[in-house]
Amino acid sequence: MATLILQVFALACVAVAGVVWLIYFPYPSPLIRRWLPPRKRWPTDQIRGWLETGRFQREFLRYFYRDPERMAPPGDTLIAPADGVITSAEVLDGVRYLVIALSFWDMHVQRSPAAGKVIRLESQGDAFTDGEGREFAFLRAKHCPVQQRVVVDTGVGELAVRLITSLAARRIETWVNVGDIVDRGQRIGRILLGSTVVLELPAAATLLAKVGDRVRAGETPVAEFPR
Amino acid sequence: MSSFFWASDHLGWGVFAIVVFMGAWWLLADLVWRLTSIRIVKLAVFAAGGWLACVALIVAGFYLSGS
Fold first, then answer.
1. Which of A7, A11, A23 is the best mutation test for B, with the most CBs of B within 10 A?
2. CB nearest to B34's CB, from A1, A7, A36
3. Active site residues of A
4. Is the pLDDT confidence value at A140 over 90?
5. 8 Å CB contact between A80 and A216
6. Rg of chain A, C-alpha, whole Å
7. What domains are there in chain A, each with its CATH number?
Protein backbone atom coordinates (compact mmCIF):
# COMPACT_ATOMS: atom_id res chain seq x y z
CA MET A 1 0.00 0.00 0.00
CA ALA A 2 2.87 2.39 0.85
CA THR A 3 4.34 1.80 -2.60
CA LEU A 4 1.04 2.67 -4.24
CA ILE A 5 0.82 5.90 -2.23
CA LEU A 6 4.34 6.87 -3.27
CA GLN A 7 3.55 6.07 -6.90
CA VAL A 8 0.36 8.12 -6.84
CA PHE A 9 2.29 11.01 -5.27
CA ALA A 10 4.94 10.83 -8.00
CA LEU A 11 2.27 10.73 -10.72
CA ALA A 12 0.51 13.69 -9.11
CA CYS A 13 3.80 15.62 -9.31
CA VAL A 14 4.03 14.79 -13.01
CA ALA A 15 0.43 15.97 -13.49
CA VAL A 16 1.13 19.24 -11.63
CA ALA A 17 4.23 19.79 -13.78
CA GLY A 18 2.03 19.37 -16.87
CA VAL A 19 -0.60 21.81 -15.58
CA VAL A 20 2.05 24.39 -14.64
CA TRP A 21 3.57 24.04 -18.10
CA LEU A 22 0.16 24.69 -19.66
CA ILE A 23 -0.55 27.69 -17.42
CA TYR A 24 2.74 29.39 -18.32
CA PHE A 25 2.79 28.50 -22.05
CA PRO A 26 4.04 30.09 -24.33
CA TYR A 27 6.45 31.36 -21.68
CA PRO A 28 8.87 28.99 -19.93
CA SER A 29 7.61 26.85 -17.11
CA PRO A 30 9.22 27.64 -13.73
CA LEU A 31 10.52 24.08 -13.80
CA ILE A 32 12.90 24.76 -16.69
CA ARG A 33 13.45 28.50 -16.26
CA ARG A 34 16.66 28.19 -14.28
CA TRP A 35 18.44 26.56 -17.21
CA LEU A 36 17.59 29.35 -19.65
CA PRO A 37 19.59 32.53 -20.26
CA PRO A 38 17.80 35.69 -18.96
CA ARG A 39 16.51 36.81 -22.36
CA LYS A 40 14.79 33.47 -22.88
CA ARG A 41 13.83 33.07 -19.23
CA TRP A 42 11.74 36.24 -19.39
CA PRO A 43 10.86 36.99 -23.05
CA THR A 44 10.12 40.58 -24.08
CA ASP A 45 6.40 39.93 -24.59
CA GLN A 46 6.08 38.56 -21.09
CA ILE A 47 7.80 41.61 -19.56
CA ARG A 48 5.65 43.98 -21.62
CA GLY A 49 2.60 42.15 -20.31
CA TRP A 50 3.79 42.74 -16.75
CA LEU A 51 4.33 46.42 -17.52
CA GLU A 52 0.69 46.70 -18.55
CA THR A 53 -0.66 44.92 -15.49
CA GLY A 54 1.94 46.27 -13.08
CA ARG A 55 2.45 42.78 -11.66
CA PHE A 56 5.93 41.37 -12.04
CA GLN A 57 7.35 37.98 -11.35
CA ARG A 58 9.33 38.23 -8.11
CA GLU A 59 12.22 36.26 -9.56
CA PHE A 60 12.50 38.72 -12.46
CA LEU A 61 12.49 41.73 -10.14
CA ARG A 62 15.22 40.13 -8.04
CA TYR A 63 17.27 39.70 -11.20
CA PHE A 64 16.47 43.22 -12.40
CA TYR A 65 17.51 44.89 -9.14
CA ARG A 66 20.89 43.18 -9.05
CA ASP A 67 23.79 45.47 -8.23
CA PRO A 68 27.06 43.59 -8.73
CA GLU A 69 30.43 44.96 -7.74
CA ARG A 70 32.47 46.32 -10.64
CA MET A 71 36.22 46.89 -10.82
CA ALA A 72 37.22 50.02 -12.74
CA PRO A 73 40.21 49.42 -15.03
CA PRO A 74 43.46 51.21 -14.14
CA GLY A 75 44.16 54.54 -15.83
CA ASP A 76 42.12 57.69 -16.27
CA THR A 77 39.94 56.74 -19.21
CA LEU A 78 36.25 57.53 -19.00
CA ILE A 79 34.33 54.37 -18.28
CA ALA A 80 30.83 53.45 -19.34
CA PRO A 81 28.12 54.83 -17.03
CA ALA A 82 25.70 51.99 -17.83
CA ASP A 83 25.39 48.45 -19.11
CA GLY A 84 23.99 48.27 -22.61
CA VAL A 85 24.70 48.80 -26.29
CA ILE A 86 26.08 52.03 -27.75
CA THR A 87 23.53 53.13 -30.31
CA SER A 88 24.81 56.57 -31.21
CA ALA A 89 27.83 58.86 -30.72
CA GLU A 90 26.75 62.05 -32.46
CA VAL A 91 28.31 65.47 -31.96
CA LEU A 92 26.03 68.49 -31.61
CA ASP A 93 27.14 72.02 -30.69
CA GLY A 94 30.53 70.88 -29.44
CA VAL A 95 29.15 68.06 -27.29
CA ARG A 96 29.43 64.38 -28.08
CA TYR A 97 26.37 62.41 -27.01
CA LEU A 98 27.27 58.77 -26.37
CA VAL A 99 23.95 56.98 -26.19
CA ILE A 100 23.75 53.66 -24.35
CA ALA A 101 20.51 51.73 -24.72
CA LEU A 102 19.58 49.47 -21.83
CA SER A 103 17.40 46.42 -22.29
CA PHE A 104 15.13 44.80 -19.72
CA TRP A 105 17.89 42.33 -18.89
CA ASP A 106 20.74 44.78 -18.40
CA MET A 107 21.96 45.75 -14.97
CA HIS A 108 20.35 49.12 -14.24
CA VAL A 109 22.68 50.80 -11.76
CA GLN A 110 24.59 53.71 -13.30
CA ARG A 111 28.15 54.63 -12.38
CA SER A 112 30.25 57.74 -12.69
CA PRO A 113 32.55 57.63 -15.76
CA ALA A 114 35.27 59.57 -13.92
CA ALA A 115 36.26 60.91 -10.53
CA GLY A 116 35.13 64.45 -9.82
CA LYS A 117 32.64 66.72 -8.11
CA VAL A 118 28.92 66.76 -8.81
CA ILE A 119 28.21 70.37 -9.76
CA ARG A 120 24.64 70.13 -11.05
CA LEU A 121 21.66 67.80 -10.83
CA GLU A 122 18.94 68.69 -13.31
CA SER A 123 15.50 67.20 -13.77
CA GLN A 124 14.06 67.60 -17.24
CA GLY A 125 10.98 66.47 -19.11
CA ASP A 126 7.47 65.74 -17.99
CA ALA A 127 6.38 63.00 -20.40
CA PHE A 128 7.48 59.55 -21.47
CA THR A 129 8.48 58.05 -24.80
CA ASP A 130 8.86 54.50 -25.92
CA GLY A 131 10.49 52.63 -28.77
CA GLU A 132 11.84 54.36 -31.84
CA GLY A 133 13.21 57.83 -31.47
CA ARG A 134 13.77 57.79 -27.73
CA GLU A 135 17.53 57.86 -28.24
CA PHE A 136 17.39 61.30 -29.75
CA ALA A 137 14.55 62.74 -27.74
CA PHE A 138 17.05 64.51 -25.48
CA LEU A 139 18.23 66.51 -28.47
CA ARG A 140 14.74 67.76 -29.23
CA ALA A 141 11.98 69.30 -27.16
CA LYS A 142 12.64 69.30 -23.45
CA HIS A 143 9.19 68.16 -22.42
CA CYS A 144 10.02 64.62 -23.35
CA PRO A 145 11.28 62.31 -22.01
CA VAL A 146 11.62 62.48 -18.23
CA GLN A 147 15.31 62.51 -17.37
CA GLN A 148 17.89 63.36 -14.74
CA ARG A 149 21.16 64.99 -15.72
CA VAL A 150 24.14 64.57 -13.43
CA VAL A 151 26.96 66.99 -14.26
CA VAL A 152 30.41 66.13 -12.95
CA ASP A 153 33.45 68.40 -12.97
CA THR A 154 36.43 66.09 -13.37
CA GLY A 155 39.09 68.77 -13.07
CA VAL A 156 40.10 68.11 -16.68
CA GLY A 157 36.72 68.86 -18.12
CA GLU A 158 33.00 68.62 -17.46
CA LEU A 159 30.91 65.65 -18.39
CA ALA A 160 27.28 64.79 -17.84
CA VAL A 161 25.33 61.60 -17.49
CA ARG A 162 21.70 61.70 -18.51
CA LEU A 163 19.46 59.01 -17.04
CA ILE A 164 16.49 58.85 -19.39
CA THR A 165 13.29 57.00 -18.67
CA SER A 166 10.92 55.41 -21.12
CA LEU A 167 7.25 54.56 -21.04
CA ALA A 168 8.33 51.31 -19.43
CA ALA A 169 10.85 52.74 -16.98
CA ARG A 170 9.15 55.84 -15.56
CA ARG A 171 11.29 56.06 -12.43
CA ILE A 172 14.80 57.32 -11.83
CA GLU A 173 16.76 57.28 -8.60
CA THR A 174 19.86 59.45 -8.22
CA TRP A 175 22.15 58.60 -5.36
CA VAL A 176 24.40 61.68 -5.41
CA ASN A 177 23.87 65.33 -4.46
CA VAL A 178 25.37 68.59 -5.66
CA GLY A 179 28.78 69.02 -4.03
CA ASP A 180 29.41 65.30 -3.61
CA ILE A 181 32.83 64.01 -4.59
CA VAL A 182 32.43 60.87 -6.69
CA ASP A 183 35.00 58.22 -7.50
CA ARG A 184 35.53 56.77 -10.91
CA GLY A 185 33.00 53.93 -11.21
CA GLN A 186 30.98 54.99 -8.16
CA ARG A 187 27.27 54.27 -8.22
CA ILE A 188 25.31 57.43 -9.05
CA GLY A 189 21.78 56.20 -9.65
CA ARG A 190 19.38 53.75 -11.17
CA ILE A 191 16.67 53.78 -13.82
CA LEU A 192 13.89 51.35 -13.16
CA LEU A 193 12.95 49.03 -16.02
CA GLY A 194 14.95 49.63 -19.14
CA SER A 195 15.76 52.88 -20.86
CA THR A 196 18.64 55.00 -22.07
CA VAL A 197 21.74 56.53 -20.56
CA VAL A 198 23.57 59.30 -22.40
CA LEU A 199 27.12 60.32 -21.62
CA GLU A 200 27.85 63.91 -22.69
CA LEU A 201 31.49 64.62 -23.43
CA PRO A 202 33.45 67.44 -25.01
CA ALA A 203 33.54 66.82 -28.77
CA ALA A 204 37.35 66.74 -28.57
CA ALA A 205 37.31 63.65 -26.35
CA THR A 206 38.71 60.54 -28.02
CA LEU A 207 36.24 57.71 -28.33
CA LEU A 208 37.50 54.27 -27.31
CA ALA A 209 34.26 52.46 -28.13
CA LYS A 210 32.13 52.50 -31.23
CA VAL A 211 28.47 52.29 -32.11
CA GLY A 212 27.24 48.72 -31.69
CA ASP A 213 29.65 47.88 -28.86
CA ARG A 214 28.25 46.32 -25.70
CA VAL A 215 29.59 48.09 -22.63
CA ARG A 216 29.55 47.41 -18.90
CA ALA A 217 29.00 50.12 -16.30
CA GLY A 218 32.12 50.94 -14.33
CA GLU A 219 34.33 48.64 -16.39
CA THR A 220 34.43 49.38 -20.11
CA PRO A 221 36.57 52.38 -21.18
CA VAL A 222 34.54 54.42 -23.67
CA ALA A 223 36.52 57.66 -24.10
CA GLU A 224 39.35 59.78 -22.81
CA PHE A 225 39.83 63.51 -22.45
CA PRO A 226 42.24 65.17 -24.86
CA ARG A 227 45.71 65.57 -23.34
CA MET B 1 2.28 -8.69 -18.90
CA SER B 2 -0.13 -7.99 -16.02
CA SER B 3 2.65 -6.95 -13.63
CA PHE B 4 3.73 -4.34 -16.19
CA PHE B 5 0.50 -2.45 -15.53
CA TRP B 6 -0.43 -3.63 -12.07
CA ALA B 7 1.46 -5.61 -9.41
CA SER B 8 -0.16 -7.16 -6.36
CA ASP B 9 -0.95 -3.91 -4.51
CA HIS B 10 0.51 -1.10 -6.56
CA LEU B 11 0.96 0.17 -10.11
CA GLY B 12 3.27 -1.89 -12.28
CA TRP B 13 6.77 -0.42 -12.40
CA GLY B 14 6.76 -0.56 -16.17
CA VAL B 15 3.80 1.74 -16.74
CA PHE B 16 4.86 3.94 -13.81
CA ALA B 17 8.31 4.43 -15.33
CA ILE B 18 6.81 5.29 -18.73
CA VAL B 19 4.47 7.95 -17.33
CA VAL B 20 7.20 9.61 -15.24
CA PHE B 21 9.57 9.46 -18.21
CA MET B 22 6.97 11.10 -20.46
CA GLY B 23 6.68 14.08 -18.13
CA ALA B 24 10.44 14.55 -17.91
CA TRP B 25 10.85 14.06 -21.67
CA TRP B 26 8.21 16.71 -22.42
CA LEU B 27 9.98 19.29 -20.24
CA LEU B 28 13.35 18.38 -21.74
CA ALA B 29 11.96 18.83 -25.28
CA ASP B 30 10.56 22.23 -24.26
CA LEU B 31 13.95 23.24 -22.84
CA VAL B 32 15.74 22.20 -26.04
CA TRP B 33 13.17 24.09 -28.13
CA ARG B 34 13.81 27.28 -26.17
CA LEU B 35 17.58 26.95 -26.03
CA THR B 36 18.15 26.17 -29.70
CA SER B 37 16.82 27.49 -32.97
CA ILE B 38 15.67 24.03 -34.08
CA ARG B 39 12.58 23.91 -36.26
CA ILE B 40 9.49 22.59 -34.54
CA VAL B 41 8.98 19.74 -37.05
CA LYS B 42 12.56 18.58 -36.64
CA LEU B 43 12.28 18.76 -32.87
CA ALA B 44 9.02 16.78 -32.95
CA VAL B 45 10.66 14.05 -35.03
CA PHE B 46 13.67 13.85 -32.69
CA ALA B 47 11.50 13.95 -29.59
CA ALA B 48 9.17 11.23 -30.87
CA GLY B 49 12.10 9.04 -31.95
CA GLY B 50 13.84 9.47 -28.60
CA TRP B 51 10.62 8.81 -26.76
CA LEU B 52 10.01 5.58 -28.67
CA ALA B 53 13.58 4.38 -28.10
CA CYS B 54 13.43 5.11 -24.38
CA VAL B 55 10.03 3.46 -23.97
CA ALA B 56 11.36 0.42 -25.80
CA LEU B 57 14.31 0.37 -23.39
CA ILE B 58 11.98 0.61 -20.39
CA VAL B 59 9.82 -2.24 -21.69
CA ALA B 60 12.86 -4.35 -22.54
CA GLY B 61 14.43 -3.62 -19.16
CA PHE B 62 11.22 -4.56 -17.41
CA TYR B 63 10.97 -7.95 -19.11
CA LEU B 64 14.68 -8.72 -18.96
CA SER B 65 14.85 -7.99 -15.26
CA GLY B 66 11.67 -9.99 -14.68
CA SER B 67 12.82 -13.08 -16.56
1. A7
2. A36
3. 195
4. no
5. yes
6. 22
7. 2-64 (no CATH), 78-224 (2.70.70.10)
B19, B31, B33: best mutation site toward chain A, by most A Cβ within 10 Å? B31
CA gap B60, B57 in Å, rounded: 5
With CB atoms and an 8 Å threshold, state whether A3 touches B34. Answer: no
pLDDT at A77 over 50: yes
The pLDDT value given to residue A127: 62
What is the predicted ipTM?
A: 0.83
- Alpha-carbon gap: B67 to the closest alpha carbon of chain A (Å): 22
Judge whether A92 is closer than 8 Å to chain B, CB to CB. no
Q: Determine the residue of chain A that is closest to B21 in CA distance.
A: A14
What's the pLDDT band for A182 if we cut at 50, 70, 90?
very high
CB contact under 8 A, B35 and A4: no
Q: What is the DSSP annotation of A65-113?
A: T------PPSSSPEEPSSSEEEEEEEEETTEEEEEEE--TTS--EEE-S
What distances in angstroms separate CA A209 from CA A78, A88, A227, one per listed residue? 11, 11, 18
Q: DSSP secondary structure string, A101-143?
A: E--TTS--EEE-SS-EEEEEEEEE-SS---STTGGGGGGS-TT
Which pLDDT band, with edges at 50, 70 and 90, does A132 fall under? very low
Q: Looking at CA atoms only, how far is residue A11 from chain B in angstroms?
A: 7
What's chain A's average pLDDT? 87
Q: What would the pLDDT profile of A185-197 be if each residue is shown by its tens digit?
A: 999 999 877 678 9
pTM of the model: 0.81
Smallest CA–CA distance from A35 into chain B, residue:
B31
Distance CA A129, CA B3 (A): 66
Res B3 pLDDT > 50 = yes
